[in-house]
Every structure is written in C-alpha cells, then in structure tokens.
Design brief:
One of its GO terms (cellular component) is mitochondrion. It is built from 7 helices and 8 strands. It is of the alpha+beta class. It has an 8-stranded antiparallel beta barrel with strand order 1-3-2-8-5-7-6-4, surrounded by 4 helices.
Length: 290
C-alpha cells in the first residue's frame, strides 16, 4: 500500500510539472504574437513629411461610422398606387365593359395614369396606376368616393361581386426615372417586378439602374417608368416598358441575349435579385397610357 501511495504521488508531481511547462510555453507564444501584431499595425502619428526636428500632433484614430441611409431619398411627395384586381373568369368581359362605361366617375376625383388587362403572366386580371400628390389627398379622394352615390350605385356595387381579390402597393419613382409617354399609341406594355435582396438601393441601386438603362436604348423597348415599392413587399422594384407588339418584344429580347453591354449589366445585377415576375398587358380603351 505504501508503494502504491508513493507511485501515485510521483505521477501527480510529474503531471503538475508538465502542466506548468505547457502553460509557460503558451504564455511565451502569446507574447510573441502580440509583439508581431504591434509591429505590423500602422501607427497614426506624424506624417511622412515630418523631419526629426519637427513634431506633429498624432491624428485621432478613425472611428467606425454607421450608415443608416438606404439610398437616395425622395425629394417630393408624389406617389403612385398600383392596383391589381383578379376577376371571376366568367365575368372578365362584363367587368371591362362596366369599367369602360363608368370609369369617368372615378377619374373625376384623381388622376389615372394607366389601366391594362393582363394578357400573359396572369389570367383574368387588370392592373392600374393612380397618381397622388400626398397621402392626405388620397384619403380625401377615398372619403369623397364613399359618399358619391353615382360611383357607389352605378359602379362599385356592380363591380365588386365580379372580383375574386384586390391588391395594392404604394410606389415612388426611383430618383433617376421620370414617367414617360410611349412613342406612339397601339402598343403593348410589360410590367417587370423585381424582388431584390434586403439592403435597399444603397446595396443594389446602382446595379439595378445599370441593368434597366442598358435596355432603354435605341433599338430596344421604351422605359415608361421605374418604381420603388414603399408599401407592399419591401426591396421590390418595378419597370414598366412599352413595345410595338408582343413579337417586337420577343425580337428585342433575342437581341439583348447577344448584346455584350446588356449581358454584362444584367449579370452584375442578378447577384442582388431574389425573384422576378413579368406580365405583358394590353391597354384598355380608356387608359391614358395607350
């Protein structure tokens, strides 16, 4: 038993000696690494033009700055309400006929930018854009419409049963875009909706602008406007295009696939893109944008 106790004592002593040596070695390595870091870190003292006889006050170290802005800010209050209505399939023609006859009751209160029937990328759907100078104006318009007996009895009460759903978004023109008119009447429109990755225009704004404007050139379609969603899905942007016809749009798309300038701009933007939806639309007879 005594021999066993002595062996155990010897083993413990050996373990503690080895542990002490290991800790000393770690402390030495840590000190060497810290010394190398100090020598490798640039000093924020005198500038390189100082001589040994002159002195400069050390410049304060740069403090990290938090950037809360997400891109260029809106400089005006004008916004555009996007509205999408889905119609019962057997009521599509009746809804368009009723709207064509009664839309003047609605446009008497605020400005209609355009009204379209979706041809490709959706069935039995209409899409329309309304312009407002402020949220106060929109609230006033909605309140007035609710008290307009002609609007309620002649249109609203008949149109609502024809719909399966309604959706809206509040959008602003992006700072580098202005609402344009098509070069001629009688064409088709494409609404391209991009769901961008979180971060806002500060992250993807320049790449998106380059991709869109690359297509807005002679020989391509006409950009009517680019919009950034304020209420609805965030980080969502829309581009509204005009083409002479669906076949004209198909030809342009084929051309773009072989245009190195367009391809490069699109590739730079696609890294910021989560999803995209395209809808080809026909302007209604009463649409201001035809």
């Amino acid at each position: 038993d005594l021999a066993l106790i002595e062996d155990l004592h010897t083993s413990c002593l050996s373990f503690f000696l080895q542990f002490h040596l290991f800790r000393t070695l770690c402390q030495h390595v840590e000190a060497e690494l810290l010394s190398e870091v100090r020598h490798a870190t640039p000093q924020t003292g005198c500038c390189c033009c100082c001589s040994g006889e002159s002195s400069c006050s050390p410049e304060p170290a740069q403090q990290p700055r938090a950037h809360f802005g997400t891109g260029p800010q809106q400089k005006h209050r004008t916004f555009y309400e996007f509205r999408t209505y889905c119609i019962h399939p057997d009521q599509n023609a009746a809804f368009l006929k009723l709207t064509n006859e009664k839309i003047h009751l609605r446009t008497a209160h605020s400005e209609l930018v355009g009204y379209w029937s979706v041809e490709y990328g959706g069935l039995n759907k209409v899409f329309h854009i309304w312009k407002y100078d402020s949220y106060a104006q929109r609230a006033e318009v909605r309140a007035t419409l609710a008290q307009d007996p002609a609007w309620v009895s002649e249109y609203l009460s008949k149109a609502l049963p024809m719909l399966t759903s309604q959706d809206n978004e509040v959008t602003y023109m992006v700072p580098w875009s202005r609402l344009q008119s098509p070069p001629q009447e009688g064409g088709v429109y494409e609404l391209v909706s991009f769901q961008m990755r979180p971060g806002g225009p500060a992250v993807w704004g320049k790449a998106f602008q380059a991709a869109v404007t690359a297509h807005d050139a002679p020989g391509y379609g006409k950009l009517i406007g680019a919009f950034h969603c304020e209420f609805g899905l965030q980080n969502r942007v829309h581009a509204l295009w005009w083409f002479e016809s669906p076949d004209h749009r198909a030809e342009i798309r084929h051309t773009a696939h072989h245009d190195a300038r367009v391809v490069a701009a699109v590739r730079n933007n696609i890294v910021n893109l989560d999803s995209q939806r395209n809808q080809l639309m026909l302007p209604c007879p009463f649409s201001p944008l035809k």
